[in-house]
Structures are given as structure tokens and as C-alpha cells.
Amino acid sequence: MATFVISKKLSGHYKYELTSRRGKTIFTSNAFELRFECEDEIDLFKKSVDKLFFMRFRSPSGKFYFKIILNDKEIAVSRKYTTQLLLQKGIDEIIKYGPQAEFLDFSKSEDIFPPAEDIFG
């Protein structure tokens, strides 16, 4: 099953990603000033999967990617894929698992490791 992951960028803005059940990023959202805006858009995304439009592109290096359009607004850009088949699999995974995907919030800047001074003296 896919998972939405909310995180904080170095600029202080928030973003969310949809990751596959294998942990690979499928797409990354645009930036938001407030964390709850991410949650609101995830909820809208999950309710509106049938209304999504996927614009397909090819980069100058030959990789394939897509942009997700909802209500005439670009909401996310996919990662780069090496083939059109893999790109289509990414889209299929969004349609199949997106509506029931849970979300994880990694936007809090709590350190999981103690300061180096505490360890090394």
C-alpha cells in the first residue's frame, strides 16, 4: 500500500510525497507554508482520484515523468522513470492505492539522536 509522507523542506515550507509500498517516491507535491495545508490537499487528493489528470512529459535526458492536475491546478510532479511502462505503473499505483493511503508526518524537527557532545564528551 502507498503512503503519503509529510516533511519540511530546508526553506521552512512543507511538502508531501506519495511513496510506493516498496518505499520509492512516486510524486512530490508543491510547497505549502502551513502543515495543515498538506493534510487538506491530501484529503482532497484522496477524494478526487477519479478527477486527476496526468500530463506526461519527457525530459531532455530521455527520462519520463508526469504532472498531476486537479481542478485546473498543478498539484504534484512525479519522479523520473526510465520507460513509459514504469511511468504508467506509477500512475496505476496512484489510482489503485491513493484513495486508501495513510499518511505519516515527518515534519516535526525533533532530533532522534542525542547531541554529539553528550556521546563524545
TrEMBL record:
Gene3D superfamilies: 2.30.29.80. InterPro entries: YegP-like_sf. It comes from the Bacteria. This is DUF1508 domain-containing protein.
